[in-house]
Amino acid sequence: MATPMRVRAALVAAATGLALTGCAGLTPAKNDTQSGSDVVLRVQGMPAPTDTAALAQFKRLVQDFQAKNPGITVEGTENRWDPLTFSAKLAGKTIEDVIQVPLTEPQGLIARKHVQPITDQLKQWTHYQEFNPQVLQPLSDSAGQVYGIPQAPFAQGLVYNRKLFTQAGLDPDRPPATWDEVRAAAKQISAKTGKAGFVHESKGNTGGWQLTMLTYAHGGSMETEQGGKFVAAVNDASTKKSLELLKAMRWTDNSMGQNQLTDQDDVVKQFAAGQIGMFMGTPGTYKLAKTKFAMKDTADYGVTSLPQAGGNATLGGAEVFMVPASVPKEKVDAAVQWLLFAQAEAQYEPAVAAERAKELAKDPKAAVGVPTLPMFSTAQQDKINAAIKPYVNVELGHFKPWLDGTPKLTLKPEPPVGAQKLYTILDTVVQSVLTKRDANVDALLAKAQADADKMLAAEQK
């Protein structure tokens, strides 16, 4: 079980910001000396065209990196993790040289030797020893070899619409701290405003993902270790209580709206339009609501730490950048050079963070100063916060409940084995509870337990 981690505000676009200096202490990657040709590095993580500010900074970042690293050409792609195509691309060696995956995947990729360690290259950076150990631990094997760098580590919380809270007679500066309070607030919002008081995602693996958050808050886990292997733990009291809560909110309180088949984009889009009172998410959803779905009155956005029901825990995570095992050494060196330049530097160097924030703040659609978990020490994060303060354009007070409450919670990782496949199994359970009044929670969990046990056994052969 992870230990509590302090949180501070950080530059939300660290992964796509403008870098003005090279990574101190890191030897530039070399060209392919055998062929004499330039290294062409294909990297995932390029922002979508709708995120105009971040995309412009990504392109500027590429130009700056290439100017400081002659012989390396960076080609960005918008490709993201897709469980339906990822394995085939990896096996066919058609995937990029730097890949972006959710934190559910690194341990499986490491165990199957689909990715390669980058410890030797990382250690060339002067500040390698200053990484937050909790950030690198999920990306490391039992021997301590590191296989990736995270982007904007996060902890799940409860996002809420401050305007709907006010309209419903609730205090937006005192958001729910327990799930009993969430249920009561959702019912009040629905009754007073006619909007959905609370929405739980349910498709594209997001149903199982959010059910895991609820289970953690109730004190449970989705997988447990027995005899050196992981087995399913979905059919227990914590998950049952979570589903019974959703069932009561949906069918007894009628506080969850009419559309029950949603994923994250669906929910954030509705939230941005003022149609949803609360949903589980991170401070980063502010950026998504503003840049992708044109949330008109961003002063309505609020986020608090994940409400609890006896678990005193929340789900932590991140997007992770890794290097496939098939990538040759000269490209690995270039890949790590890029990752440190693009990911790590702005979260360590105050001057770089300030320049990125200044550039990003020029775009009215940008969100500068959205909190994340620190990649380095709290002291270093405080320096970053001070450096970017003149350019912060978000209502930091609206993130205060998350900043104040999250350090008091235990950060638990996503299920360690086959998490995405487990979420697929649990999606069906969530969908049944939200769409069928007579759904039998016990029967649904019994089947999910059996299906999950079979999946985990196959994953660990």
From TrEMBL:
One protein family per Pfam: SBP_bac_1
Keyword Cell inner membrane: no
InterPro entries the record matches: Bact_solute-bd_prot1, SBP
Signal sequence, start to end: 1-24
Domain of life: Bacteria
Keywords: Signal
Record bears the keyword Signal: yes
Name this protein carries in UniProt: Extracellular solute-binding protein
Organism expressing this protein natively: Kribbella sindirgiensis
